[in-house]
Amino acid sequence: MDAAFTAEQQEIRRTLRDLLGKRSGPDGVRAAVAADCGYDAELWTLLSARLGLPGLALPAAYGGVGCGLMELALACEETGRVLLPSPLFATAGLAAPLIAALGDEAQRRTLLPRIADSSLTCALAVSGGALTRALALTGDNAVGEWAGGGRAGGVQARRGVGDTRAWRLYGEADQVLDGHSAQLLLVAAHTGGYARGRTLLFLVRGDAAGLSRTRRTALDETRPQARVQLRDTPAELLGDQGDQGDQGEPRDEGAADAVAAALAETGRGAAALLAAEAAGAAGCALDRTVAYVRTREQFGRPVGSFQAVKHRLADVHVQVQAARSAAYYAAWDPAQAGPLALAQGLEALRRAAAEAVQLHGGIGFTWEHEAHLYVKRAAADELMFGPVHLLRARAADQAGLFEPDAADAADGEAAA
């Protein structure tokens, strides 16, 4: 890994930080989350025009900038610093990679250019609040139990009449990121009954008949969530996910395996982006706290001059720098470090936000101050994408840290 950033990467970071510094302060964030869509649509369009933000990691052949996950992670670090409410993560971090991996050529050429130019926003709808399991961040997603199963619950799919790509969806998905405003939904649905059921992905237009979406009250308003209900809703199968029987039962078991693999790969990249966001937010919370304790006086001297305060902030600084390094490594090699980097980023953000509230004193507990926004982001992200101990356990399992070696296994058998 080359730890030095290229001139292009540095320019992406500098341009985005300057633009967000002018357009997305604490007051701007509060105004954006109060909008019907949950973000500043004008700023979203500007970010697309100036930086090609939603298409940063998409190939140039599909209208993207042609960069990679590292550039998108650097952008997420900057958006995380200001807690920018935007459809960037749901659209570019979750939906676009799945469309690129599973969609057929016609779907990719239709959808990806619209994502790249910001004219299409997307959301991934998974039932039961099981997003982290679907993305294989805290456990294996191959079984498909996270999709609700075939007897009841989750979202069920039935094939429509005539066109083999036309389907009808029934059910409900909760806690869908940006689900209330996305123009296209990628819905994970169970098909084929219980005995031979599989979980596949379907495309649902935001204005489809039978689709009902309700914005929910969320702990972190900068990440709006929605309840998505589908009642005989028309949908299109994403890509060619296997031959289907007359009743919609998949004949090809590899179809569901391909979906699980694509979701897991997307999850590793998403973990790197979330880790970068968390590191950016933690760094900003720390910077604001350091600036405050330099000016706030107690007993005739700045609070920041007390040794105990220095030690506390020094510990946070070390933790933030470690989280930032882990996020960069995860963006460079998501398969190796995604969940672990996310765990480190979430811990750093939680610690930095807590210290920000404590060291700001009385004002840090008020609704008017921005410190509470970082506390809510830390808590909400861990609830939705964690918890931290499960992220670390998943990373340990994937690395085989706790698997007994051959000698231990032989000793155990001999003892038995």
Report on the structure:
This protein is of the alpha+beta class and 416 residues long. The protein has 3 domains: 7-89 and 108-120, Butyryl-Coa Dehydrogenase, subunit A, domain 1 (Orthogonal Bundle); 124-251, Butyryl-CoA Dehydrogenase, subunit A, domain 2; 262-399, Up-down Bundle (Butyryl-CoA Dehydrogenase, subunit A, domain 3). Helix content is 51%, strand content 14%. It has 13 helices and 9 strands. It has helices spanning 7-23, 26-34, 41-51, 69-81, 88-102, 105-116, 131-134, 253-295, 307-332, 334-359, 371-385, 388-399, 406-415, and strands spanning 122-125, 155-159, 166-177, 184-191, 198-205, 211-216, 225-237, 297-298, 301-302. A 5-stranded mixed β-barrel has the order 2-3-7-5-4. The protein has a two-stranded antiparallel sheet with strand order 8-9. A hairpin with an 8-residue loop joins strand 6 (211-216) and strand 7. It is globular and about 80 Å long. The chain starts with 6 loop residues before the first helix and ends with a helix.
